[in-house]
Amino acid sequence: MSTSSKRIPLIPLPVTAVTCTEDRAHIERTAVLELAAGTQRLRLGPVTALAVDRTLHAELAGDRPAAVLDVRIVRAWTPRPPGSSDDDSALRRRVTALDEERSALEQQRDRLGVRLDLLARLAADLLREISEGAGHGESESDRWTRELDRVDGERDAYGERLRTVEARLAGIAVELSETRQALDASEREPAELTGHIELTVHAEAAGQAELRLSHLTPCALWRPAYRAVLDGPELTLDTDAIVWQLTGEDWSDVRLTLSTARSAAATEPPRLVEDRLTLTDRSPAERRTVHVDLREEEVADLGPAPVLGLPGVDDGGEVRVLHSPAPVSVPADGRAHRVPLSSFTSSARSEYACSPELSPLVNQVVRFDNKSGHALLAGPVDLIGGSGFVGRGTLDFTAPGAPVDLAFGSRDDHRVLRHTEETRETAGITQRTVVTRTVRLNVSRFSAPGEDDDRVIVLRERIPVSEVSAVEVRLRREACSPVPDSVDADGIVRWDVPLAPGGRRTVTLVYDVSASSKVSGL
């Protein structure tokens, strides 16, 4: 066709649906086209210039047969002209005026500085002339006085003007910074790089057809976030999505889908390489000695996970898809926008727990079941208690219907002090080394006047777990005070300690680690 693309009218192609993944977004657009019979070229847009060309996909749906012959994105660069224009807002015009005034004042300051430098040199030359004339016996006191007075007067006048200009420059700098902050908060720079879609279609007959176009675009991401409200025996958990996008175009009333798929991750399996295993005979010295190491392992029951900020999307190894229940609008300003996803209320059980080896604080841990109907992804949680905002915690990945442990902060009216002792003995006949460790925990409760209820504090300590038969670990229950309520397979020892208002308790844990004479490294 000989028709120039510049004369083809631009057909709007709004964003109707967005699927936001961990680091990009899949954009869907729809438009109703009036097609004539035959082959024709259409221009649609504007669209974001960040659209990935190779992901463009277009299809037509309608009563009359029509086919898409070609689809491509065409970009145009239109730099912003210098200075101000008639379309500028009052804030933008104020910024331009302040920039121009600052430039003029800086030039005036430079001129005044040069003038003062010249006057300083003139005063120095005049003083040198006076000293030389007085040395030769010349006396022109009247002229010298007049010249000195004139130079000093000009220096005072220009110095005052320079101070006025510098004060005005300082004021302009403050006003310009505040105006630019207001401008950044309320407006954004128009895009210099724009794009539109050029679509070539063939229709058998004239009529309407619905165009569906999709593509990927970067500069968009999302992360989960939560809000937990504890009200007595019940907890309400709101699931939100924090969405950022700086794609160059706003998303207005779109169907938002949130996915944990990682489209940028490599899909090829790793290459297999040979891994040779060889066996060697132990030396006599190695047969006589067993070397052991003390290895630390993290156990989730020891306490809540630390708050490390906004984590990545943790989906438990399976792609999860969440949907916004209502259309949403997300402007392309690069800021965080909160989108509600779901909310549920569940019965909650509170426990006051402390792991003194990790922290001397007593934390309130709330346990409830995930009744949201979908998996809870790892993310930060805003904690709301009876007195208002308590703090921020972290929620781990939780499957639907699974129990959830959520820490609601520490209690300031509890203190736990931990003291450890260790003794080492060697039996004379068997040459067996026995290491006895004693851990004492002093638990205190500082109650406010009027409190009369007992509170159960769950204390957790750990003992080593041996993986070799040459090393034995034995809990000395007769020496423990009180006897632990439970000891699990991971070596976590638990006490349920009741404390009355103002009460104090001492908990003692004693265990032995014994090893034969051929064990080293203990």
Q: Which secondary-structure class do the elements indicate?
A: alpha+beta
Whole-number count of domains: 4
Mean pLDDT, all residues: 85
Question: Multimeric state of these chains?
Answer: single chain
What is the first-to-last residue Cα distance?
86 Å
Shape, please?
A: extended
Major sheet description: 7 strands, mixed
Q: What share of residues are in beta strands?
A: 35-45%
Number of helices: 3
The gyration radius over C-alpha positions equals 39 Å
Plain-language structure description:
This protein has helices at residues 90-135, 141-186, 284-288; strands at 10-11, 15-20, 25-35, 38-47, 57-61, 66-77, 193-203, 207-217, 220-231, 234-245, 251-259, 290-291, 321-323, 328-330, 337-347, 349-354, 362-369, 379-385, 388-395, 403-411, 414-426, 433-445, 455-462, 471-475, 486-487, 492-499, 504-515, 519-520. It is α+β, with helices and mostly antiparallel strands and 522 residues long. It has four domains: 5-80 and 191-217; 90-186, Helix Hairpins (Orthogonal Bundle), CATH 1.10.287; 221-265 and 286-411, no CATH class; 414-520, no CATH class. Strand 21 and strand 22 (433-445) form a beta hairpin.
Summarize the entry for a quick read.
It is built from three helices and 28 strands.
Q: Characteristics of this structure?
A:
522 residues; alpha+beta; 3 helices; six-stranded mixed sheet; single chain; seven-stranded mixed sheet; 4 domains; Helix Hairpins
Task: Describe how the helices and strands are arranged.
Blueprint: E1 10-11, E2 15-20, E3 25-35, E4 38-47, E5 57-61, E6 66-77, H1 90-135, H2 141-186, E7 193-203, E8 207-217, E9 220-231, E10 234-245, E11 251-259, H3 284-288, E12 290-291, E13 321-323, E14 328-330, E15 337-347, E16 349-354, E17 362-369, E18 379-385, E19 388-395, E20 403-411, E21 414-426, E22 433-445, E23 455-462, E24 471-475, E25 486-487, E26 492-499, E27 504-515, E28 519-520
Parallel strand pairs: 1-4, 2-11, 9-18, 12-28, 16-23
Antiparallel strand pairs: 2-3, 3-8, 4-7, 5-8, 6-7, 9-10, 10-15, 11-13, 11-14, 16-17, 17-20, 18-19, 21-22, 22-27, 23-26, 24-27, 25-26
Helix pairs in contact: 1-2
